[in-house]
Amino acid sequence: MGSESNNTPQPNVSTEFLQLDREFILSLFEDRESEYMDLQAEVSRLTEQVAKLVKELDKSKSVQAEIQRELDLWRQGTKEIQTVEDRPKCTEPGLPTPQQLQESESAEGPVVQTTSRRQRRQQQYQKQQQQKVQPQQQQTASITSEA
User: Fold this and answer.
1) Is the domain of 69 the same as that of 127?
2) Which of 28, 81, 102, 115 has the fewest other C-beta atoms within 10 Å?
3) Is the confidence at residue 1, as pLDDT, over 50?
4) Are residues 116 and 72 in the same domain?
5) Can you tell me the distance from the alpha carbon of 15 to that of 12, in angstroms, rounded to the nearest whole number?
6) DSSP string covering 53-114, please?
7) Is residue 97 assigned to a domain?
8) Is 116 in the same domain as 65?
């Protein structure tokens, strides 16, 4: 074990191996603990992601059920055309809100407005086409007058 003269025990070979084994086991334990913490963080992240996906799925199912119900009513012939007041409060981005639609509808109704908008677009298109055709006609006229 140790010498009696200097009162410090000298480690024997088996004690050194035990110390190395202990250090090795502690390092393995620390590695496993670190891996465990990483796995816990990954599990938490995936759990949150699953919760979000479940919410989206539930929302999708409710929308699908609403669409199916309206489709069934339409097939039965009991579904009426929605008025501005009947339209849902949530609208898709870029679409006018029901209040905006109500404000834009005149006594003649939106069909007349659509028709006038269509006529304005047609007139603008015809003007553009005429502006394109006029320079071509002038070029043709100048070529024929030169000949």
Assistant:
1) no
2) 81
3) no
4) no
5) 5
6) HHHHHHHHHHHHHHHHHHHHHHHHT-PPPP-TTTS-S---TTSPPHHHHHHH--SS-HHHHH
7) no
8) no
pLDDT at 112: 45
Q: How confident is the model at residue 74 (pLDDT cuts 50, 70, 90)?
A: confident
**What is d(CA 87, CA 105) in angstroms, rounded to the nearest whole number?**
15
User: Does residue 90 sit within a domain?
Assistant: no
Burial group, residue 57, by CB count within 10 angstroms (0-12, 13-18, 19+): exposed
- Residue with the larger pLDDT of the pair 122 and 100: 122
The token pair at 98 is 């029901």
Question: Nearest to residue 83, comparing CAs of 104, 98, 73?
Answer: 98
> What is the model's pLDDT at position 105?
52
Range of the domain at 75: 10-79
**Looking at the 3D structure of the chain, how many domains does it have?**
2
Region 112-116: what's the mean pLDDT?
55
63 located within any domain: yes
Whether residues 126 and 75 fall in one domain: no
